[in-house]
């Protein structure tokens, strides 16, 4: 320290070298696409939401609030009109129009247009179309209750600059791609000034942003797939915030000066889908047996050091429709072996495919799950650890046996809309859903019925029935709800959210 009590060194810093005008965020996975519609992964949203901002602000447990959309009103005919601000501009200087928003929604939900978007399948499942009514009014059409549609467009409605995207990328037929700052063009509080594909993206505050000035002048996003590496960067002052700290690295952060751990139980469940169009997973008895073979409590206590909660349904507490009466499956080896024999698949040999570095101790958890199943006298199971992209592709490959090679894998799903439908419809509904992971008409019909119920209390009760039905049919090996564990500079004022989103505009330093 200098004699006047200020840090010797860079101007604008503080006692530990932190510059409050700049922010570096280290993710566990760097986006492998620049198309803001070609993903449904949390790390990607953490980057691209600052460039292609959401139309609404969503607060977990509270609903949606105005942002780019100033107001909205259900019309009573299967449409809701959204009224946009008239002072929003893209980073290239073009005005945002209702046509941009309507075209972006159409491109998201139409697999024949642009890039087949998982957001359209999983995020905007009830949305059927959109059109511009006038310069600032968008009519969104849906085939469900207005309340469900609001959960969906309230979380996933974004805006691309239609003419820019078509002129530069023919984006009605192809994905947006590129390797320079000019390949990004949103309306968000930050614009891209430097981009190294696969490594780093640097943003600066956008001078003509319609809203409040963001808290940091410059933001850098990078990634490290190893928790220990992310923690080391935090300790060295090379990053200011990092996600997915593993339980074994928590003490390292807590004991280091100037940084700390912040955590929250998330909306993300970890589970292992079993595609029931192939043997042995076409048997409900076999799928239930896999659940009875696994000790969720031991996994949480051992692999996660208690940073999680065992779960027996597709969604987490706090989600609309979560069923308080559903307990996790308890390990019962005898029951599991008996159900395997009842299924007719005694002697089955299966493989669990799982990622490494995407979720908290995911590879270790997968090994434990496989070992516990392998304890059964009449089933053999091994774990195969792969890159997350392999698992993501398996999850999107649908249930046609000719279209996929991996029927049993581990993945996580954050029900970020706050509604059970988001945690089930993309996996289980049959009509017009080539990406579903499970084929069961009773479960599909129950979900579709819930989508049409307008009374909130009645719909919540139906969703609780959906979760009970899912528990019984066992489309997944249900594992746990994951905690979100962050490492962060002490000076940064920010509380983590249950939906795992990282919004820099909600921070201060």
From TrEMBL:
One of its GO terms (biological process) is peptide transport. Residues 1-11 have a biased composition (Acidic residues). The keyword Translocase does not apply. Residues 65-429 form the Solute-binding protein family domain. GO terms for molecular function: peptide transmembrane transporter activity. Gene3D superfamilies: Dipeptide-binding Protein, Domain 1, Dipeptide-binding Protein, Domain 3, Periplasmic binding protein-like II. Residues 1-24 are annotated as: Disordered. Belongs to the bacterial solute-binding protein 5 family. InterPro entries: Peptide/Ni-bd (IPR030678), SBP_5 (IPR039424), SBP_5_dom (IPR000914). This is ABC transporter periplasmic protein. The keyword Signal applies. Keywords: Signal, Transport. GO terms for cellular component: ATP-binding cassette (ABC) transporter complex; periplasmic space. Pfam families: SBP_bac_5 (PF00496).
